[in-house]
Amino acid sequence: MNAASRRESEGDDRPLLILDVDETLIYGADADLDRPCDFFIGIYHVYRRPHLAEFLATVSEWFDLAIWSSGGADDVTAIAERICPPGSCWKFIWGRERCTPRTYFNCKFVEYVKDLKKVKRLGYNLNQILFVDDSENKLCRNFGNAIYVRPYFGDASDNELPPLCRYLASIREATDYRAIEKRYWHNH
Ligand SMILES: [Mg+2]
Fold first, then answer.
1. pLDDT tens sequence across 142-167
2. Which domains does the chain have, with CATH numbers?
């Protein structure tokens, strides 16, 4: 039995929402900003994006949730455990080791690309995966699954997650997320 039919036979056919971490769900600063941080991870002063708990609690009713960051696995796991919605758990927590390094030789820059073919192997249909990220380059191989958010740098008045939640509510029952034009979701 392949992974897809195994998920189906287990009655686990909910769509998957993968979330980036840094500048999408939280901001990790080197020092406190204009207010005390929410918690520490290693040397980082971590700020939850405003409305994060409500956002995660709501979307966990509709989607399987997973975390995929290009940060170090230990930090990513620690953050994911701190923000996990009550009564829910992440389908997976992946860090940089699951990304595909793509080197730009001319500027000596490495981009850590998140390639959804690795998620497909878990049994998820690509038509039923959404990926929320603040970085377009990280999802260059699967832009049809992407919903881009404005990066979060600790602004206490940030209001990105409530409209994102409403947008997800409006498309969550679609049969093929990749057929939906999502680049202009802010205007929804
Ligand atoms: Mg990010």
1. 999 999 999 999 999 999 999 999 99
2. 14-187 (3.40.50.1000)
